[in-house]
Amino acid sequence: MRAQFVLSEIGVGLRRNLTMTFAVIVSVALSLALFGGSLLMSDQVNTMKGYWYDKVNVSVFLCNKSDAESDPNCAKGAVTEDQKKQILADLDKMSEGKERLVEKVTYESQDQAYKHYKEQFGDSPLAASLTPDQMQESYRIKLKDPEKYQVIATAFDGRDGVQSVQDQKGILDNLFGLLNGMNWAARAVMALMLVVALMLIVNTVRVSAFSRRRETGIMRLVGASGFYIQAPFIMEAAVAGLIGGTVACGFLVTARYFIIDHGLALSQKLNLINFVGWDAVLTKLPLILATSLLMPALAAFFALRKYLKV
User: Fold this and answer.
1) Closest by alpha carbon to 194, among 71, 291, 89?
2) Beta bridge mates, 59
3) What phi and psi, each to the nearest 5 degrees, are found at residue 264?
4) Residue 220 to residue 224: CA distance in whole angstroms
5) What distance in Å separates the CA atoms of residue 85 and residue 269, rounded to the nearest whole number?
6) Cβ contact 191:34 at 8 Å
7) How high is the mean pLDDT in each 10-residue block of the chain (310 residues)?
């Protein structure tokens, strides 16, 4: 009998404040969709870091005859065979032992560099004027730990015959910095939406309590417990929040399906990006639903303690 009364009061409360209930559902849905989206963005950035950092190389570019005339780092002339052998020997030492820094070393000649440049930038006006002897020889170094780039830079930067030491990780760091910035912006909007949702929940509960102040007064007079009086209001907020959380889950699943798998089909168009899988999405859904249920219930509970004074 008591459970039936509580459930009937929930239905009455939701119908009486239909507009505010709808506003609560929408705000909770948007804020939790952003919450889930920000979690997935973090997973995506970490996945991309693990994928791309494993592929980045450190390049030791060697001086050629053109550099000897124009680059201060090559003031002593083009790299000699002895200098190349010494650089390779030092790299070999770094690839030995359990604590090795270098995993693999690949030599790229001037002809190979010219061929790769033509493949990538063959349509540019500059490519037509370049010749193989203007390209730089280089050692492409695959590090065991991409974070140890500075060790290679310190060992070879400024050495005779070395024009520069470049780390591809620096380019990726700029990209991941941008993605992390976008993620924090999404979290800021999410936090704002959560505040709006909490304010709407509190106001909705208070309006509902005010509209039924006569019933709650009678219940207090006949000795109803505080929790029994509060339960319908708390459950109203929880039901509205749960509906919003369900909508947020629908947003995430739909977005994953149409943006990555179908529709835009980014997974097919951007083969170089390793997108997060369905497992990452599905593991976020229970957290979103639990938050959508507990957050409104707790907000309503603390609001009613002060308002109803029971």
Assistant:
1) 291
2) 140, 166
3) -65, -30
4) 5
5) 43
6) no
7) 58 68 84 87 79 76 85 87 90 83 88 83 70 87 80 86 83 75 81 82 76 66 67 83 93 89 76 80 92 88 66
What pLDDT shows up at residue 7? 61
> What are the phi and psi torsion angles at 139 (to 5°)?
-110, 120
| Token pair recorded at residue 224 | 């109803």
